[in-house]
UniProtKB/TrEMBL annotation:
Gene3D superfamilies: Rhodanese-like domain (3.40.250.10)
Protein name: Putative rhodanese-related sulfurtransferase
Lipoprotein found in the keyword field: no
Keywords in alphabetical order: Membrane, Transferase, Transmembrane, Transmembrane helix
Natural source organism: Lactobacillus acidophilus (strain ATCC 700396 / NCK56 / N2 / NCFM)
GO MF annotation list: transferase activity
Amino acid sequence: MSNFLIVLDIILLIIVLIIIGIWGWNKIQAKSLGGELTNEEFKKGMRKAQIIDLREKEPFKRKHIEGARNLPYTMLKYQYGELRSDLPVYLYSDSNTITLRAARFLKKKGFVSIHWLKGGFEAWDGRTKKSKY
């Protein structure tokens, strides 16, 4: 029984180390991509940036950041050419994982200034709008 508990402890330790490793890798990747912005930083730069809502169409219709354009993550690889690579891109969604994936994708495609909203759309405290369509 004692050997079983030792093996179980080792397995649990490995799982914890993997989770910590993935978390650390995401933090390192986030810093190399441009970085997350607080609400205030996002608001300051949004007039000069392309604001992209990565959520699907229905959540975007219900409510989105004023001035944002809906480009669902599922369509990003087909429609990223509609974005200007010379302007900053401000991303947000409901999932930090999706936002980071989108940022990595845009970085690979030559975009230089990529930022995202810390905490995603739920953390936004600025002006919002409902779509008319």
